[in-house]
Every structure is written in structure tokens, then in C-alpha cells.
Design goal:
The protein is an alpha+beta fold. It has 13 helices and seven strands.
């Protein structure tokens, strides 16, 4: 009997893999590049730590290292794949591609693995998949934690470093406007400063509420008895002052008293009317109406700008979404409708939108007269 006949089968398979190592890697990278890579990658990026994994597999087949050491390279592979944009499914399938390449190599050389070799191959590939996916998940979890931490820091900046200076600007401009010795130019300049500060404050409040929602906190409400007609009238009057070139009609019918948070309703109505201004031209009229509807009060905001594309309507209330018809000079964050919807839901109300050439774009809000600000309503405000 020759020495080769006395050599364990595992050595023969290890030699087969080692002798064809470069061909295996080339075949593997071509498949990954063609079927799984999320974007163009260099040869080194495609391979990443797979050569190390293959070398450890060879060593495990030779019995040179324990099986538990043969998959360490998979951890780095999982981290790298997360960084370059692979999803979890693609990471798992990469090891399936390696398995197929190994099986194809054995078929080409008419090689039948021993039971022990099958066990080593299966363990290495299975553990490799598990470790790569686990590391990919850790990287994702780390990214999520970093985003949450960033949101917390942003929350601190918005709530303190921006709001306080804006309040000072608003109060100072309002105080100076009350002086009787201002000429027309000074009065107009101070009015613009006050208007801009209020606009920035509203954007800041929207961003603050969005950050709260990202951190799992519900929209806070302080309901009290109020008249929606009166509040809406005040808001429309202020918007007319800021946009004297726009035609904003107001219609009010019946009784509009109820229990709501006036500050939150102000925020929502400003956002809805501001959206109507943003998505219509200077020539298009805007119609705002509040009317008695029994147990509820309806608010409608209509603009006659171009109708919304059908594929944009489902995304209207998503954060940081701006429609294709938006005028570029409005300075919107894309949070206005998202925040408005959260406020409506927190009041146990409903909001919907329709858009057509004939009727224009109409946002309709149903405000229950007694807002059942329950725990479930708060949860709905965060999940819708």
C-alpha cells in the first residue's frame, strides 16, 4: 500500500481545496458580483475576509486547528458587509455560494468527501453564516443606538440652543414694533424679522416633535375649552399678514366649541395652510373652512394648485417628504403634514386628503369635540 493510500481522506480534500484556492475565490467573487453585491465593489472589497475563512477551512480539514477557530474570519466579513450595504439575506447567501463552489470543485475532480469531511464542511459553513449574520446584526444595532444618541443630542440642541434665541428675537421685534416713532421702512423690517422668527420657531417645534416621536414619546396635549372658529380666524389673519400676496378665504358655519389643545391645533392648522401655500401658485386661491358637524367639528384646507400625483398621496404624511409640486423658496423641512397628522391622531381625530383637477387638493380634519386623549390614542399617534 502506498503512502497516498495511507493518507487520510481529509488531507486529500484539504489538498484539493488548497490547490484550487485561487480558482475557487475567482468563481465565488464573480457570482457575488453578479448576483448579490448591492453596488460595484473592487476585487478586494468583494473578497474581504473570505480568503482567511477558506484558509481556516483548509486548516480545519487538516485537523491543524479546532473547528471553533475556523470561523473567526466570518465576524469581520459580517461587519464589512454591513458597512458596504449588504442585507442579512445576502450575507447568508454568500456562504451558500461558497458551498456550491466547493461542491462543484469536488464534482469536477470526481471527489467524494468522507463523512468526517462533510461534518467539517457543514460545521464551518453553518457557523460562518451564524457568525457573519450575528456580526451584521450587531453593527446594525450599533448604528441604531448611534442614531438614537444623535437624536437625543439634536433634541437638546433644538429645545435649548435654538428655541431660546428665537424667543428672544421674537420678543425683541414685537417690543420694538410697539414703538410709536417707527417709520414705514423700520416697521416693515421689524415685521419681516418677527415673521421669520415665528416661521423658524414653527419649524423648530416640528423638528422637536419629530425627534420626540423617534424616541418613542407621544405628542403631549393640554386640552381646554376653546372655540375652533376663533382660533382658525386668528391663524388665517396672521398668515394673511405674512403672505399679503395670497388670497386666503375663510368660511365658518355653526358652533365650533370643543376641548382641544389650542397650541397643538395652532401648530397643525399653520402646517396645513402652509402646505397649501407651498403647493400652489400666487394666483391660486386658498380656502379654509371650519364647520359644525354634530359631535365633531370639520376643518378643511383647500388649494387649487396642480393635483397631486397619485403615487405621492400615500407618502404625504411621512416625515421629510416633499412633493414634486413644491415651490423651492418655501423653506420646508417636509415635516409639516407628518406633525399635523400626529396632532390630529393624538386628539382621536382623523385626517384625509383628496386631489383632482376639478376640486383641487383638499385636506379634511375631523376634530371630536371632546378629545379622548387615551393611552391608545397616544400609541396610534406614534404608529401611524
Amino acid at each position: 500500500m502506498t503512502d497516498s493510500e495511507n493518507k487520510p481522506a481529509s488531507i486529500l480534500l484539504a489538498d484539493l481545496v488548497e490547490n484550487n484556492r485561487n480558482a475557487l475565490l475567482e468563481r465565488w467573487t464573480q457570482t457575488i458580483e453578479r448576483t448579490l453585491a448591492p453596488k460595484p465593489l473592487t476585487q478586494l472589497e468583494l473578497l474581504n475576509s473570505l480568503p482567511d475563512f477558506l484558509d481556516d477551512l483548509i486548516a480545519a480539514l487538516q485537523g491543524a486547528i479546532p473547528l471553533r477557530w475556523a470561523t473567526d474570519a466570518a465576524k469581520e466579513h459580517g461587519s464589512h458587509r454591513f458597512r458596504v450595504g449588504f442585507d442579512v439575506e445576502s450575507v447568508a447567501r454568500e456562504y451558500g455560494v461558497l458551498r456550491d463552489c466547493l461542491l462543484e470543485l469536488m464534482r469536477e475532480h470526481n471527489y467524494s468527501p468522507t463523512p468526517n469531511e462533510v461534518v467539517v464542511l457543514a460545521r464551518c459553513l453553518t457557523d460562518g453564516i451564524a457568525l457573519a449574520i450575528s456580526q451584521h446584526a450587531r453593527e446594525r444595532e450599533k448604528e441604531v443606538k448611534e442614531r438614537i444618541e444623535f437624536d437625543k443630542q439634536l433634541l437638546g440642541i433644538v429645545s435649548h440652543d435654538l428655541r431660546d434665541p428665537l424667543n428672544v428675537i421674537s420678543l425683541s421685534a414685537a417690543t420694538m414694533l410697539r414703538r410709536s416713532n417707527l417709520d414705514e421702512l423700520e416697521s416693515r423690517g421689524l415685521s419681516r424679522i418677527l415673521s421669520s422668527a415665528k416661521h423658524a420657531t414653527r419649524l423648530t417645534n416640528d423638528l422637536l416633535d419629530y425627534t420626540h416621536a423617534r424616541l418613542g414619546r407621544a405628542i403631549s396635549l393640554r386640552p381646554k375649552r376653546m372655540d375652533l372658529h376663533s382660533l382658525t380666524r386668528q391663524i388665517v389673519d396672521e398668515i394673511r399678514l405674512v403672505h399679503p400676496d395670497r388670497r386666503i378665504a375663510l368660511t365658518q358655519v355653526g358652533d365650533a366649541e370643543g376641548e382641544w389643545d389650542p397650541d397643538r391645533l395652532t401648530q397643525a392648522i399653520f402646517n396645513l395652510v402652509g402646505n397649501a401655500i407651498q403647493y400652489s401658485s400666487l394666483q391660486d386661491p386658498i380656502q379654509v373652512s371650519t364647520r359644525d358637524d354634530g359631535e365633531t367639528v370639520l376643518l378643511e384646507v383647500k388649494n387649487h394648485g396642480p393635483p397631486l400625483p397619485a403615487d405621492e398621496i400615500p407618502l404625504l404624511f411621512e416625515p421629510f417628504q416633499r412633493g414634486s409640486n413644491a415651490r423651492p423658496e418655501t423653506g420646508s423641512l417636509g415635516l409639516g403634514l407628518y406633525i399635523a397628522k400626529q396632532i390630529v391622531l393624538a386628539h382621536a381625530g382623523k385626517i384625509q386628503v383628496t386631489s383632482s383637477d376639478e376640486e383641487g387638493t383638499v385636506f379634511t380634519v375631523v376634530w371630536p369635540r371632546r378629545s379622548l386623549v387615551t393611552e391608545q390614542a397616544m400609541k396610534d399617534a406614534l404608529t401611524h
